[in-house]
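Usage example:
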Amino acid sequence: MPDSALPFPLFVLAPPRSFTTLVTGMLSQHPQIYGGPELVLFYRPTLHRLWREGRNNRIDDAQIRHGILRFVAEVYFGEQSDEAIQGAEHWCAARQHLPNGEVFNELRRKVAPFHLIEKSPYYSINPEALQAINTHCPDARYLFLTRHPVAQGVSANTLSKGWYTRNLNSTDTRSGEVVYDPQTAWHDLNMITLRFLEADIPPDRYRRVKGEDLLANPVEGLADICRWLGLRDDEAAMEGMQHPETSPFSCLGPISALFGNDPNFLRNPYFTPSARRAVPELDAPLPWRDDGYGLREEVITLAREFGY
Amino acid sequence: LTETPAPKAKRELIGQITYDPANHAFEDETLEHARRKSVSVWRRRSVRQQVVKHLRRIASEHGLTNEVGQFFNNKGYPPPHITLASMLRMYPRRNVGPSMPRSQRRKTQSACRPR
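Running the assembly step on the lines above writes:
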């Protein structure tokens, strides 16, 4: 099947801690969609470089490969065992010098007639990754998830014991000191995504959705997304999407590829409907700063544009 | 009639977001000095929190949870005037575990550990 005849893929773009894991887990349970783990294929040009350089030029960054290994093991070998992961490593080694876009399209062919869904927050960091997606998948659809900057910052600060901001170099120098502050990453990652979508993607192929709205009213929100994608929006499809725990990727993997997604989700992959929480004020002092500073003007402007 | 298109919002970045540690440095020397200082302070603090967590675990094994716990406030680290040396002076070795060779100690502890 030529690439142009394949069902279009769906990419979920957002900064980390913006409900991407849960929303992708829910969408992947749609009867016409397949996926789940973070493949991270477009973050590096080839699998060889993904293996060699990882996320931050460190060869020991093994977790970044767990998603693709688990996916290949499940799709090609029918299970996620250590033996299947070994087979997946061989599968990847045989394609190590191919452009990752070709590898991704090979996976699309394998899961056709399902639409392949992929999300990796790393893509929002790297404009070249976004361009590579558009080059290799010119028919792709993009779901751009947003989250309130303060809520995202609070959540991000709990990630990796606060190393999120340090790994990403998310700094704020307004006070004359260098303060590691997640709001800079929130702004720039959203901005990189917006730049890409507005400049290179026709408006009918992307949609921006507030994560809080989607999770507060999942039936309506998911049905709306399905209608936009031209997929089934019947009751059975909606019911299935509210059970992300039924995916074969919604659990910890075998010891040789444990993760491939947010570990918190893998331990507790259930969607629990809950009432909408109060939205934090945009002009209040930030809970993670003890110098009384609040959100920057640019961050407030972008948050207002997103409807917060 | 021709409509004037609405001006597009400026999409400018405000930081230098990257995963590559080689690109984390500021060009301004003062800011770069402050950045390095901030990172080292954070590292020291996170290591100290790990040590305290480990110490609490050991203390609970020896029934000293209350004695050790009183030195740690809610933030998880002791007030500045409490140092490791002062704690060791206050709680000499005999109070925190048997003094014996490492190999025997491990054997004894694993034998005593509740199954």
